[in-house]
Amino acid sequence: MPDSAAPVSNLGFAILGLLARRASTGYEVAQRMRQPIGYFWTARHSQIYPELNRLDAARLVEHEVIEGAGPRPTKRYRITPSGQTALAAWVVGDLEPQPVRDLEVLRLWSIWTVEPDAAHDLIGRLEGAHQSALDRYLEELAEISDLPGVRDPSKPLFASRITLEGGIRSRRTALEWCAWMRAELAAAVR
Amino acid sequence: MPDSAAPVSNLGFAILGLLARRASTGYEVAQRMRQPIGYFWTARHSQIYPELNRLDAARLVEHEVIEGAGPRPTKRYRITPSGQTALAAWVVGDLEPQPVRDLEVLRLWSIWTVEPDAAHDLIGRLEGAHQSALDRYLEELAEISDLPGVRDPSKPLFASRITLEGGIRSRRTALEWCAWMRAELAAAVR
DNA sequence: AGAGACATGTAATCTGTTACATGATTCG
DNA sequence: CGAATCATGTAACAGATTACATGTCTCT
After folding, report:
1. A10-91 to CATH, choices 3.40.640.10, 1.10.10.10, 3.30.465.10, 3.30.70.270
2. Between the CA atoms of B132, B137, B140 and B141, what dihedral angle is there, to the nearest 10 degrees?
3. Which of A147, B82, B110, B184 would give a disulfide with A17, using CB separation of 3.0 to 4.6 Å?
4. What pLDDT, on a 0 to 100 scale, did the predictor assign at position A133?
5. Closest residue to D14 (CA, C1′)
6. Which nucleotide's C1' is closest to B74 (Cα)?
7. A57 pLDDT more than 80
8. How confident is the model at residue A98 (pLDDT cuts 50, 70, 90)?
9. What are the domain boundaries of chain B?
10. Quick one: which residue's CA is nearest to C18's C1'?
């Protein structure tokens, strides 16, 4: 039984999910959780190193010291059996509705305060951002879709594929919505 | 010219957007920015009162003391002309790609660690959450869609309508995605 | 008389970003 | 020899949540 009384944060579960796929150094975890696709969650190294130490103290991960560059010892972390148990329990746990927080939609909510030309331009830029995100996701999906295990629900690649598919669908929908908004603006300007 | 050197936070612009639509007390701002639909941004009163004071100090809003309940004076805030200018400038300003941060997708990314039955159940619960959000959005849209100004891009109701439309489209897409994921799970379990 | 909405604040804590700090190895 | 990458940490600050604190008015 692990040291209880130590609640794991969302970031902690993100890291456990990463390490369940493959053992990594803190540096590698930071690379994988960075731009442009950190699989729908991001964090900086300054947040990751302390969190790894907490997970380590809670025995949800363990580390071995390996040789590597840098002034301090390089550590490779791997998830422990109790880490895997905790991760699986979190995955199927209660999901309370999380607050929506979208800065771009917040902007659009005040779009009535600006001139139609500026509004049109803003939506165009939004469209560009969604398009490039979509392109990246499609590329990622193409890279994994022929790999073995991609259709097996007990394999990590299955989960990568379905979350990527979700990203693709939502970006496509956002693009359609942008086109619709342009049309709504044009209809009124007429 | 307002006191410069005072950068306004995203929360500040959310509040300015609210006050641009109608003058409110801090309490009313807090009600409007609460669950279930805070128009894609939420905040608690403990964050709102200090922010209102900062906006007030920067002359982006002003207040009058009115009579009301409570141990302290009740204040009604309204946006100032320079507040409107600042809001409009923010709306058309640069949009740097914001980091994706979705806790439900993060869960799904580790769904391969659990049994197919539990995975199926999780997706069912996700579907229920999206469905109830969709229902709320549809109700909201029905309430405003016959009001005057709803098709005029210079009116707040236009912006309410297009952001609500975005919410509806994204929830519908999420529901389709959930159905697709169930099918993918079933195909493999076969 | 008690519950609940109205009304405004502060304090403690947690989460996340930016900036500071150090130093080895590899490639051009 | 300089730049980039590998590698790990801490400190200061900003943003957000939870809890503490107070007191009135209205309805049942």
Report:
1. 1.10.10.10
2. -140
3. B110
4. 93
5. B9
6. C7
7. yes
8. confident
9. 10-91, 103-189
10. A46
